[in-house]
Amino acid sequence: MTSFWYYSDPTLSQPKRKEETVGREMTGDEALAYVLKEIGVKRVFTSNAVPDFLRERLAQYGLEIDISLSVREALELADAFARDSGDAGVVISTPGSSLLEGSSVVAQAFSDSVPLLMIGTLRSYRDVGKARVGELKSPDDVSSSLSPFIKFKERVISIEEITVTVEKGYKEALSNRMRPALVEIAEELFRLKAYPLSTAEQKPERKTPDKNTVAKVAEVMGNSKLPVVVAGYGVRASNASPQLLELAELLDAPVITTFRAKGVFPASHPLYAGEGLGAFSTEVASKLMMEADSILVLGSRLPQLSTAGWSMRYKGFLMHNNVDGEDIGKVVMPQLPIVADTGLFLKELITILKQKLKENIKREVRSEIASSRRVFTMKPHSGLWPYDVTRLLQQFKFSRYFVDLSAPTLDLVRLPIESPVWNTSESILEKGIGVAGVLQSNDPGALGITDLAGVLRNVGLIQQRAEKAKGVILVLNDGGATYLDTFKSDIPSIGKSGTFVDVDEFLERSTGAVTVDTYGGLKDILERRDPKLKVINVKIDPDYESIVLLKP
Asked: Which of 127, 309, 333, 356 could form a disulfide with 490 if both were Cys (CB 3.0 to 4.6 A apart)?
């Protein structure tokens, strides 16, 4: 290990109660590596600016260190990792001010309920404001700048506190509505020794449902002629896909998912009515929403994209579940709000329904859903349209999907998904999931889908990892001619930019992309077995029409 000078500080070396410590003296860098190992972290994302002694200490404790050229890229990878795994993405930034490079990534993670644990260093907690490299005006500036996008922030100024504070930040990031958390550690602590406090084995908290409310939901749904379930991302966040399937089959209730929740209910199941609400829903989903006498919304904020600008129409008794009570009533006012972890709520609801019902209910709704399933028809066209790509991808099986939603990629939401392996954002504050998701997965079966802006923003990341990465990245390249327009109306539509950028040669040279402009050409390259990363530049006709979005 690289030699490093350590200094003793008498105010830090003697804890009040030694029996509460880990039992031995540690430097600050070791205390950090120790606690990350203790709380179960296996992978840490950071930049090449991380000090060699800290990198070696993390490796000493068996932590995988994922190094990028910038903290923004580390945040993108950690975000994709968290979406994919359900665990917190851990990012170490030295100095902490570098976290501001990726503030849009953090903001999107906050909006999308993605757990991140950001550990940033302060240049000093004693004598601040000396204009050190990477230092802002005051030590509060980083946390103040990120405050709107983090649910927890705390500063560590003693080695004793490193263990318990990092553990608390990790727990908070994963508790209830998962979101980013920030822990700041003064860099002086890496040169000092003390006895860190023992971890408390804190577990993420999950909000339990009110039993009377659950009983009311069970009564309504058990007596309904046609109950409908709208499943949001909260189903996946609480690992409740099995419970959703059990509830649907118990009640013979159709299930509609939001765009982001695709896969929480198998697309091939006879009760699956499709994804999207309002103007973006499938035909049968729109019909069922109007006919339903009770509607249960699970773990969703009912965002603009999935609801086509909140254009959904319904008449039934609305029950809305979300772990965050602030999101209930913002879009529609439910007759019955349910503030609880979606998984815990579903378990309690199923228990009560099983006591109430002697056997599973049978309705005629399955045949109605089956008869409505069809391939969407498009008018004749010569170039590739996004739905052509969607139809082709149905012939291939990928283990996980990472999608940057935009005008040329939105038709991909009609791609049938059988399990919770679909990762995307509906807030669309940052584009990078389609690239970073594949690059961090190390999975040859991973598929990333992005647009021209998404790939150009992340060319450097692809170049860094092209030799070792696996999987497929599809770039739906319309030359930047279209965009997702939310200005003309709340219902998103295809906007025309009036510009066209030809970057085929640049993508081929910088990322090794293969350019294709025909259905057969795309099929041919997808069929080729290649253990290395494939970047495919798919030329999309700028005058395409969408099966989801409205015409401009």
From this structure: 309
